[in-house]
């Protein structure tokens, strides 16, 4: 199996705080890889590192064998045309219609005629079920529709790698089901490689081929969904089952209880 | 020793933000020009930044011209010099009030809007998503707005001065009875093209550049939260107003100061 993206011994810190400490990941071509973990451990940061928006302190991130952090700006921009990212907010341009949003990458990076662009955009919109919404403004879309429109924009240039940042966060069950189905269908029909960053356990277990669980600056578990379910790590089990207390404590670190309420001895 | 540390930290922060502002400017203007793509974007921004500021500029210009004619007349008439009302109004507008008041209004009307817009684009990840689509936000978002500001503000200042002179005419000639011939002819003979008009335009170009740069940088560098954007917008208006007034003194000293 060929790796599209390889991360080796990555260390990254921000304003003096270590986010990742010496971790390694493999994103296999044509598969869906999920990166899971509790909120606030910097899963989005991982996607920004992969896209070259942030630079690691040490370690190596390679896209098709080429190191991303040592690329010149022009080369990085060329490589980014092969990857694409679905932002949590959708990040649609609020001053353009849905149609123009999806046409945007095509108009920027190709010399296709307007009639070809129109066909392509409507096809992409058809794939996400929003052909009827082409003339709406992003503000007129519901949260789920905005994310689908953003997904249509993300696949406009037929990228090889697509990164989803919390695609299911804040979605109602129906939109969630639609998004799960879309991600799976796109991956199969377009032979995309997907990286999904999320903490929605049940959805991910159905679509991912391989899962990494991050916590405490490390990879604490990895494997196929079956292997993850069987994992004997208490941390992984707490995360999957959603127990309130466990290796990740319920209480934020604080002074001794007696000392706080009964006064210092 | 706390205060010493905070002085040091503030200095480092300030120097750092000057550096980032300079890098942003370089990234936006030193790039292969893409006229075909950028011209429509710039024209759209000239509409937003310039044309939509017209109303406030015209109204303020009219009233400032009217007030100056009224104030000037009451003083000049004591010396029988009300014929010099024309050059007084025209010179103060062209040399000082046109550039400075337009700049202050422009900072409040267009500068704050630019900061808020770019700050919100950052907060809603639109700038990041441009980058991930391999489109440089410095060229796509920053450059058109910078050029639009630099192009539209000098025109606004000229319109301000012209309307102000007409406002002076309205009060001085039509209302207070200054001779219409002397209002225009003395103005024509005492206003010098390069000394007064061109120097005024140079001032507005400098102000336009500084205001737009501050406004765009504050938005681009804003902390992407509602609090951060509100702080950035306030800073745009405060910093650019102070910069305009300070620069105005320097430029005036250079242009009209001691020979």
From TrEMBL, chain A:
Keyword tags: ATP-binding, Nucleotide-binding, Transport
InterPro entries: AAA+_ATPase, ABC_transporter-like_ATP-bd, ABC_transporter-like_CS, P-loop_NTPase
Domain of life the protein comes from: Bacteria
SMART domains attached to this UniProt entry: AAA
Cited CDD domains: ABC_Org_Solvent_Resistant
Coiled-coil ranges from the UniProt annotation: none
Keyword Iron-sulfur: no
A Gene Ontology molecular function term of the record: ATP hydrolysis activity
Residues in ABC transporter domain copies: 5-241
SUPFAM superfamilies listed in its UniProt record: P-loop containing nucleoside triphosphate hydrolases
The UniProt record lists the keyword ATP-binding: yes
Name the UniProt record assigns to this protein: Probable phospholipid import ATP-binding protein mlaF
Automatic annotation (TrEMBL), chain B:
Compartments it resides in: Cell inner membrane
GO molecular function, a single term: phospholipid transporter activity
Keyword Cell membrane: yes
Transmembrane segments: 46-70, 155-177, 197-216, 237-258
Keywords, ordered alphabetically: Cell inner membrane, Cell membrane, Membrane, Transmembrane, Transmembrane helix, Transport
Gene Ontology cellular component annotations, sorted alphabetically: ATP-binding cassette (ABC) transporter complex
Membrane topology: Multi-pass membrane protein
Quaternary structure and interacting proteins, as annotated: The complex is composed of two ATP-binding proteins (MlaF), two transmembrane proteins (MlaE), two cytoplasmic solute-binding proteins (MlaB) and six periplasmic solute-binding proteins (MlaD).
Protein role: Part of the ABC transporter complex MlaFEDB, which is involved in a phospholipid transport pathway that maintains lipid asymmetry in the outer membrane by retrograde trafficking of phospholipids from the outer membrane to the inner membrane. Probably responsible for the translocation of the substrate across the membrane.
Family: Belongs to the MlaE permease family.
Protein name: Intermembrane phospholipid transport system permease protein MlaE
Organism, as annotated: Paraglaciecola mesophila KMM 241
Taxonomic classification: Bacteria, Pseudomonadati, Pseudomonadota, Gammaproteobacteria, Alteromonadales
